[in-house]
Design a protein that fits this description.
about 80% helix, mainly alpha, about 230 residues, single chain, rod-shaped, 7 helices
Length: about 230
């Protein structure tokens, strides 16, 4: 074979091989890009859903916190400051229990789907797990124990006091009951429970998580402005 032809064939072979290799490399890189884009898009959608859950929980906890603070303040005024105003409404201030509600739809979806690693920020993922696992466990325990106290003791105590259809007491009768030390202890116990409920309402943690999720979304928006 002519050496020149052989050289040309060899060069042609290497040229074609190079084109194939480059094509495979580009296809591989494009596939990686598309997969990474899918993962990042899924993470951003998940962060938005986490943000929505946390905002809902924040509104709920703010209202709960306000309610327990108001009722605890009133009960303390009755017991310690001898406030005798609005005694007919004592049932409203006294017969309230803490009920824990889950606002963790997206977290649960990630957890049970084995997709928590979708949250690429390790610190954010750790804090989410800590809040929804430890924080919720504590809140549920307080809720259950308080419910048991209200149903097994407090409501039974109040059942002995006549009440009208509007759930109002006779204020004169309540004033007499306030001379009963056992009744006073019931109110004091509920004051203590309201304090425990307020400690179980981790509003500051929710606000901290909200800031962290928003910051992560802003970071992603800067890195991936077209998403």
């Amino acid at each position: 074979m002519n050496p020149k032809k052989a050289t040309n064939k060899l060069l042609y072979f290497f040229r074609e091989l190079t084109i194939v290799v480059i094509g495979i490399f580009i296809a591989f890189q494009l596939n990686n890009y598309n997969e990474n884009k899918k993962i990042k898009d899924a993470e951003i959608r998940s962060l938005h859903r986490l943000l929505s859950d946390l905002e809902t929980e924040k509104r709920f906890l703010k209202q709960y916190k306000h309610t327990f603070q108001k009722k605890r303040q009133k009960l303390k005024a009755i017991v310690y400051d001898r406030d005798r105003s609005n005694l007919d409404s004592l049932h409203f201030y006294l017969a309230h229990e803490y009920v824990h509600y889950d606002f963790n739809t997206e977290y649960s979806t990630l957890k049970f789907g084995g997709d928590l690693s979708l949250i690429s920020n390790d610190t954010l993922r750790y804090n989410l797990v800590k809040y929804y696992e430890q924080g919720y466990a504590y809140s549920k325990e307080i809720s259950e124990n308080h419910k048991n106290y209200v149903e097994d003791h407090l409501l039974i105590t109040l059942d002995d006091i006549p009440i009208d259809t509007a759930r109002l007491f006779d204020p004169l009768l309540i004033e007499k009951k306030l001379n009963d030390q056992k009744f006073i202890e019931t109110i004091k116990t509920q004051i203590t429970w309201y304090g425990a409920n307020l400690r179980a309402i981790k509003l500051n943690r929710v606000e901290s998580l909200l800031k962290a999720v928003k910051k992560e979304l802003e970071t992603n928006a800067n890195k991936y402005p077209h998403r």
